[in-house]
């Protein structure tokens, strides 16, 4: 039998693969469907048919960092900037709860306007709504992460972006891989559910380094991993670079499901930017989470990490109905709980 298929079957049974085996699967393109189906079975076995929805609030597009790939980078002078006031963010969260979300995700550029006190105010007031709170505001000190946690934050998302140190240094000027890893360690120590992830298709990224990304996620004991294809943004230095490949991104996601069996994996918005059914295909290839946008009006458009972002003219209510219909259309259900990670090893 084809060696690749044999390895996918072995991985499905044991949830493990060597680096070489991962690399072989990533290079191969004949067995993609076999891989997606195996990941879908692992998802069903460990996570069931529920899809967890998280309501995403993009509360500021102001960022002091200068990541080469991102439209919010401080060097981009072509973007109109905005920041929502704490009470407005809380109001949006209330509407999110009204639409039925049980997790609110607070995401922004690295914007120092939001001091520890402001963040504590925002998080603690949203916690009063009886929801889980996820924060994704970049690199902060241990003290800041601790303060958010004490205010009630349950989860934190910070992607490693790539584990290739040289590539990271080139893509994230002035930032360090060590700092990024320190953040992930601090968050774990503080008892957060930790989410990370990577970009697939960055210029000069190798297949070997993507295999290392996958093994890295296993090593750090991530609770959630989001994989997105890199999409070039005309307002960044990478404007002429090629887009990441949809199927390579999907394969990375499927491999992560097979190897990290019981973590939460979102069907990312960037996947849907590259394929109009991207999120549904991802949900059928290992993913179990979707993060619909609950940001309102103009701000949706202005939170322009990359071009072609989906649903920028839709209302939060429309998005909720639309994604629910799509999920039910593939025979799955929308989770009613807060969607915490349920470790297989801790199940009775
Ligand atoms: N400032 C925070 C959160 C916002 S950025 C942070 O950086 O952690 C959220 C994610 O958007 C980043 O982690 C990155 O992986 C993704 N992103 C940025 N630019 C992108 C692009 N051009 N294509 C695809 N994803 C991109
Ligand atoms: Fe800022 Fe995050 Fe974009 Fe980097 S990826 S420029 S930190 S918003």
Number of domains: 1
Widest β-sheet, arrangement of strands: 2-3-4-5-6-7
CATH class call: Alpha Beta
User: Which strand-content bin applies to the residues?
Assistant: 5-15%
Total number of helical segments? 14
The major beta sheet can be summarized as:
6 strands, parallel
- SSE string, helices as H and strands as E: HHHEEHEHEHEHHEHEHHHEHHE
**Structural Rg:** 19 Å
State the CATH superfamily name. Answer: Aldolase class I
What attributes does this structure have?
binds iron/sulfur cluster, TIM Barrel, six-stranded parallel beta sheet, alpha/beta, 348 residues, three-stranded parallel beta sheet, binds S-adenosyl-L-homocysteine
Explain the layout of strands and helices.
Elements: H1 3-14, H2 19-27, H3 32-47, E1 50-53, E2 55-60, H4 86-99, E3 103-108, H5 116-127, E4 132-136, H6 142-151, E5 155-157, H7 165-171, H8 177-189, E6 193-200, H9 207-219, E7 224-229, H10 246-259, H11 269-274, H12 278-283, E8 289-290, H13 298-302, H14 316-329, E9 333-334
Parallel strand pairs: 1-8, 1-9, 2-3, 3-4, 4-5, 5-6, 6-7
Helix pairs in contact: 1-3, 2-9, 3-10, 4-5, 5-6, 9-10
Bound molecules: S-adenosyl-L-homocysteine (SAH) and iron/sulfur cluster.
Word description of this protein:
- By secondary structure, the protein is α/β, with parallel strands linked by helices.
- The protein has a single domain, classed as Aldolase class I (TIM Barrel, Alpha-Beta Barrel), CATH 3.20.20.70.
- The protein is built from 14 helices and nine strands.
- The strands form two sheets. It has a six-stranded parallel sheet. A three-stranded parallel sheet has the order 8-1-9, with helices on one face.
- α6 links the parallel β4 (132-136) and β5.
- 47% of the residues are buried.
- The mean pLDDT is 96.
- The site of S-adenosyl-L-homocysteine (SAH) has 18 residues, from loops.
């Amino acid at each position: 039998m084809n060696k690749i298929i044999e390895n996918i079957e072995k991985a499905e049974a044991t949830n493990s693969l060597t680096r070489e085996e991962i690399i072989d699967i990533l290079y191969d393109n004949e067995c993609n469907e076999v891989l997606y189906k195996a990941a879908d079975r692992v998802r069903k076995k460990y996570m069931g048919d529920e899809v967890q929805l998280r309501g995403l609030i993009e509360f500021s597009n102001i960022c002091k960092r200068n990541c080469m790939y991102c439209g919010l980078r401080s060097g981009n002078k072509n973007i109109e900037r905005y920041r929502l006031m704490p009470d407005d963010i809380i109001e949006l969260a209330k509407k999110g709860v009204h639409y039925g979300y049980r997790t609110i995700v607070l995401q922004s550029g690295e914007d120092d306007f939001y001091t520890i006190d402001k963040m504590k105010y925002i998080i603690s007031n949203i916690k009063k709504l009886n929801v889980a709170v996820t924060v994704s505001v970049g690199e902060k000190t241990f003290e800041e992460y601790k303060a958010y946690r004490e205010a009630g934050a349950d989860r934190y998302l910070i992607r490693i972006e790539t584990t290739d140190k040289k590539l990271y240094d080139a893509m994230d000027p002035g930032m360090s891989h060590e700092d990024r890893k320190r953040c992930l360690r601090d968050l774990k120590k503080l008892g957060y559910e930790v989410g990370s992830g990577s970009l697939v298709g960055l210029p000069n990224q190798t297949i070997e380094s993507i295999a290392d990304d996958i093994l890295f996620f296993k090593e750090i004991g991530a609770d959630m991993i989001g994989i997105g294809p890199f999409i070039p943004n005309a307002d960044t230095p990478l404007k002429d670079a090629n887009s990441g490949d949809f199927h390579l991104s999907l394969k990375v996601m499927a491999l992560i499901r097979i190897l990290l069996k019981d973590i939460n994996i979102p069907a990312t918005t960037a996947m849907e930017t590259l394929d109009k059914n991207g999120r549904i295909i991802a949900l059928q290839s290992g993913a179990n989470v979707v993060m619909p946008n609950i940001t309102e009006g103009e701000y949706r458009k202005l939170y322009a990490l990359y071009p072609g972002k989906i649903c920028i003219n839709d209302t939060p209510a429309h998005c909720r109905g639309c994604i629910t219909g799509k999920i039910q259309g593939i025979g799955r259900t929308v989770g009613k709980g807060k969607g915490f990670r349920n470790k297989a090893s801790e199940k009775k």
